[in-house]
Specification:
Elements (H helix, E strand, L loop, with lengths): L13 H15 L8 H15 L4 H10 L5 H11 L9 H20 L6 E6 L6 H13 L7 E8 L2 H9 L1 E3 L8 H7 E2 L6 E4 L1 H4 L2 E5 L11 E6 L8 H12 L2 E9 L13 E3 L3 E3 L11
Parallel strand pairs: 1-2, 1-7, 2-6, 7-8
Antiparallel strand pairs: 3-5, 4-5, 8-10, 9-10
Helix pairs in contact: 1-3, 2-4, 5-6
Length: 291
Amino acid sequence: MSLLASQLQTDVTPQQLRRYAQLVYQKIGVTISEQKTTLLSNRLRRRLRATGLKCYDDYYELLCRTSTADAEWEAFLQEVTTHETFLFRDKTHWDWIHGVFLPELMAQVRAGKRRPTLRVWSAACSTGDEATSVACCAADKLSPLANWKVEIVGTDVGCGAVAAAQRGEFSERAVRLVPESMRKRFFEHAPGSPIWSSKPVLRDMLRFTTHNLLEPSREAPFDLVLLKNVLIYFDAASKKKVLDQVRRVIRPGGVLITGAAEGVSELVRDLETTHGWLHRIPTTTKTGVKS
């Protein structure tokens, strides 16, 4: 039974906020700055009401006793890390994938330099919008698609986000930037419904699972990894650890795409970087995965 609002501890002390921030950092590497303590305070108050716990120390102990796979951790992380996502976010990136990257692969296949396979990792995929955008590009560009083996893996630390991604359902707002031709070919939309569902041609390429970016990936190797709009929440040490893990599973000659404002330039100086967000792994490298 939940407690009355008057019974709740209403004020979070600075010491308690620091403990929570440290716990989040230890678990998933995300840094909560002092400027966001008010936001954290408000969202902690929601979880206190939802769980029926009496004070913030009790809730802290609950989180310490459970793993990030627990339902309460899922709810807590959704509160403190929520950000907007939608298909075809960052048009420049999708223009490059659709107009440069995929044609390059097809040319290599025609020249006999590679097999018609493509493996992509959408890291911190949230509800699957980014991974589904990759699938749209692949379905539209790779020809004939039936000759290609395409696997797009989306991962997120939250099992709730992964479950949403597996449903393959998107709101009108989420699909607003999907090119009209792709929307008609690759999504189903019942008249009057606000939901667009991805068709089997996309779902057959997609696989979603949970993964903490601070831990090594069990998947390898990838031709393309998208690690966007997530490293901004990490400090320098955590960014380096995540990038080291990610680079190990990109095949030589493969590509890493980061957000333009991630602050990783010093950590990828040995890579061929263009536009500030596009990084190519050298074809001979100790950090990449052998072909």
